[in-house]
Amino acid sequence: MVVxxxxxxxxxxxxxxxxxxxxxxxxxxxxxxYDIPEPVTGGLFASIVxxxxxxxxxxxxxxxxxxxxxxxxxxxxxLGLSAKLDxxxxxxxxxxxxxxxxxxxxxxxxxxxxTIASLLGLDPLIGLISGSVSLSGGHGTxxxxxxxxxxxxxxxxxxxxxxxxxFGLVLGGFTGGPLAERLIRINRLKSSSKxxxxxxxxYNEEHEPIxxxxxxxxxxxxxxxxxxxxxxxxWLVSMGIQIPEFVGCLFAGILVTNLIPKVFRKQQWxxxxxxxxxISDVCLGLFxxxxxxxxxxxxxxxxxxxxxxxxxxxxxxxxxxxxxxVYRLLGRDFDAAVMSSxxxxxxxxxxxxxxxxxxxxxxxxxxxxxxxxxxxxxxxFFIDIVNSVVIRLFIDLLA
Length: 399
What we know:
The chain is mainly α. Helices cover 75% and strands 2% of the residues. It starts with a strand and ends with a helix.
């Protein structure tokens, strides 16, 4: 039996799932101590419950996730609104290094995936699917590239890509935070920033008052930048320049937050008030809750042994690469540890996964403005472009 839920009911359940994640993280010290994002905790709990419902009663719940795209746009817009020009300038060199490491990770993922697949007697293209196609690329990239792989004889490319992306989403959320937590504790790192954290609020701080005027201002600037960014992205697409809407929203937010204050000098700008951080937290939390509770975990049961081995090797590779290479080259400081959790999130899941990991870490240990500039810029804008080039390169070499 299939139960289809409307947009409003889906939103209601997503909010409940987010509350469940917060409740579990408060009650179970392991999740908070190791910086597991609350939406990941709640979303995985919900998907397990729905998986049991499918197995025991044969009931499949189908959610209407129409709002999910808007939540993603709002979240990336809020990130742009939090990006001050001086922070962007400071993060320039780090952005180049992070992007270089991300490209290296994509090449490693695909090389290892193809090698392990060949050793296991699988088509090397399956190794490519279990690499940057589904892990760094996520569900969207896996679905987009599936028809290409089908032309080369991988008839179940979409199913394979979806399973790998689902696995990566879960593992990326459950390993990025603990890795950063370990780096921070071993190296006794501390945040050097006195700013309010970019998303949400810290666990151990008193909540700052949020008044209606500041919240309304934050909402107005967010929606203004979101509309401008989405419209600009659509216009560029019509001109033949392919750019995701959320990238347009990110850059529109950056433009708005750095130009408008020069015009309205007496008005406290929304990037300096906690209301914008709360809006960011809610949008990201609901987006991830909707994504994770919509997962059909029973599809993971169909994974063959070789595919499971492939994914476990990829997970170990990403954690090892991040621990020994990424953290060191990014500076071995607190920002580097936070960005390391973001690298794991991007490398195994997707950019929202990276942001959730970094949010959990900063809520525990303090702000890292540089991390919240570098990682979304690399993950939102450059990753899709670079990954497409890398995937095409490997297909041409293997096909």
